[in-house]
Amino acid sequence: MSSAQLLRHMGSNQPTTGCRRLLPPEPWAPAGLAAHLQRHGALVHHPSSDAWRAATFGEIERAGLVGRGGAAFPTVRKLRALLAHRGRPFVIANGTEGEPASMKDRVLLARSPNLVLDGAALAASLVGAGEIIMVVHRDVRDSVDAALAERRRIRLDSTKFRVVTAADGFVAGEASAVVNWVGRGAPIPLGKAPRMTERGLQGRPTLVQNVETLAHLGLVGRHGAEWFRQVGTADEPGTMLVTLAGSVVRRGVFEVAIGARTSHVLELAGGPSEPIQALLIGGYFGTWVPSPAALSLPFSASGLGVGLGAGLVVALPAARCGVLETAQLVRYLASQSAGQCGPCKFGLPAIAEQLELLAAAMPVRFDDLTRWVDEIEGRGACGHPDGVARHIRSALDVFGDEVSEHLVGRCSASEKRASLPLPTCEPL
Ligand SMILES: Cc1cc2nc3c(=O)[nH]c(=O)nc-3n(C[C@H](O)[C@H](O)[C@H](O)COP(=O)(O)O)c2cc1C
Ligand code: SF4
Questions:
Q1: Which residue, 309, 392, 390, 375, is CA-closest to 341?
Q2: 336 alpha carbon to ligand 2 midpoint, in Å?
């Protein structure tokens, strides 16, 4: 699929809500460089000026920008961390988007590639990187390649760019797995230590930043902290891209002001297409929240009481079985283990098996299941088991009544098939 086909397939964006910053107005066309510069203005760097660097770090800190790749880590802290280590750094723009139902990074790269490239160039100037590597999927490479060709023609960037096609698989987007993929062609995590900011690609400090984070950075670099904070909440400023999936009228990618009412967020996709019982917030590593209670809450981590992760929101119909959805999802996530750590390699399939028995309302080792979920947490070389554990805990809580039904051999769902989109469960 090309980026133009992808955009037609996905649909995206919304009536103006005062928060469309990242995505350009025309629904289908990727924005060329002229249109991009007309809309946003030029982004000026002074890489050799310490004063410029200090002022820009200050703006990013005051903006309160946090990563949009899942962990919401403060961007300025990661940028500054690179300066503490020896060796010429690399910048990697992470467009791997391993979440199966998420499309926001692909839509961003297809529609606003220049904003991501601006942010990457700015990050490279700030940390003194010698090369920027764009890791993007095949279906948006044409958009990124075309944007880079235009920029090269007018010698816009002083740092060299390289484009690498992203690997598939759920864990392929984890920061050290991306570094491993670029460096050695193996999309599997390298472990939590040393951090990539200390020793990453070729043993040099490496900034791995989600592509949406970089796009926001490109705007903070132009307009500053005060502008960035005009939208969002005091604690969670700015906008974010969300992929609205599941039972909504028009699935797609939308830009929302953090803190907007959750019902308004769903209305961007035309609202629920049928009565819903819960929302999965953040991604497949995310957290279930019950609906309709969630609908009146602010769409923010503090409002919903759960992390917004990579911005995926899945609406689960009331007619479906939350236990079955969870079992299928955990089976898929188990299949995505890179197989390097015992608790992840052996624990996840064992947990998936018990969840499948529970979903089928068959006898299950329920106490073992909950104990194993506790035991895998924090025991992997990457955050994969932790994300799965978080998901299962929230499912057992939010679908608690249904779990009780299944434990006595019944299922109250009227529709017995699972609905969440999943790739086939082939091991990596
Ligand atoms: C199992 C796993 C999968 C991940 N997949 C992605 C991904 O597909 N894309 C992404 O940007 N970050 C992903 N992350 C988060 C990255 O490790 C990293 O924190 C992120 O790219 C940093 O960018 P940010 O600070 O801009 O969010 C994943 C993390 C884990 C533990
Ligand atoms: S925790 Fe799982 S996915 Fe992560 S490195 Fe270990 S085996 Fe691989």
A1: 375
A2: 9
Give the tokens for residue 226: 């005060």
Q: Cβ contacts of residue 349 below 8 Å, gap of 6+?
A: 334
Peptide bond into 194 cis (omega under 30): yes
List pLDDT tens digits, range 198-234: 999 999 999 999 999 999 999 999 999 999 999 999 9
Find out whether the beta carbon of 344 lies less than 6 Å from any atom of ligand 2: yes
Answer whether 137 contacts ligand 1 (Cβ < 6 A): no
Beta-carbon contacts of 298 under 8 Å, excluding residues fewer than 6 positions away, are: 233, 259, 260, 261, 262, 304
d(CA 396, CA 278): 13
Length of the chain: 428
Query: Which residues are registered as beta bridge partners of 253?
Result: 12, 243
260 shares a domain with 118 = no
Q: At what angle do helices 104-111 and 113-127 cross, to 10 degrees?
A: 90
Are the C-beta atoms of 65 and 80 separated by less than 8 Å? no
Separation of 332 CA from ligand 2 center, angstroms? 14
Q: Are strands 252-257 and 239-246 parallel, antiparallel or unpaired?
A: antiparallel
Amino acid letter at 73? F
Q: Is 73 in the pocket of ligand 1 (CB under 6 A)?
A: yes
**282: containing domain:** 239-317
| Residue 412 identity | S
CATH number at residue 266: 3.10.20.600
Question: Per the domain annotation, does 146 fall within a domain?
Answer: yes
pLDDT tens-digit map of 315-360? 999 999 999 999 999 999 999 999 999 999 999 999 999 999 999 9
| Residue at which a domain ends, from 280, 297, 317 | 317
pTM higher than 0.85? yes
User: Residue 105 belongs to what H/E stretch?
Assistant: helix 104-111
Tell whether 303 and 337 lie within a shared domain: no
The SS3 assignment for 378 reads coil
Q: Which atom of ligand 1 is nearest to the CA of 170?
A: 3
* CATH code: domain of residue 65: 3.40.50.11540
Omega within 30 of 0 (cis) for the link into 100 = no
User: Are 312 and 243 spatial neighbours (Cβ–Cβ below 8 Å)?
Assistant: yes
Number of domain units in the chain: 3
Does the residue 198 lie in any domain? yes
Residue 428 within any structural domain of the chain: no
Closest to 275 in 3D by CA, of 284, 288, 266: 266
Q: Give strand pairing partners of 164.
A: 135
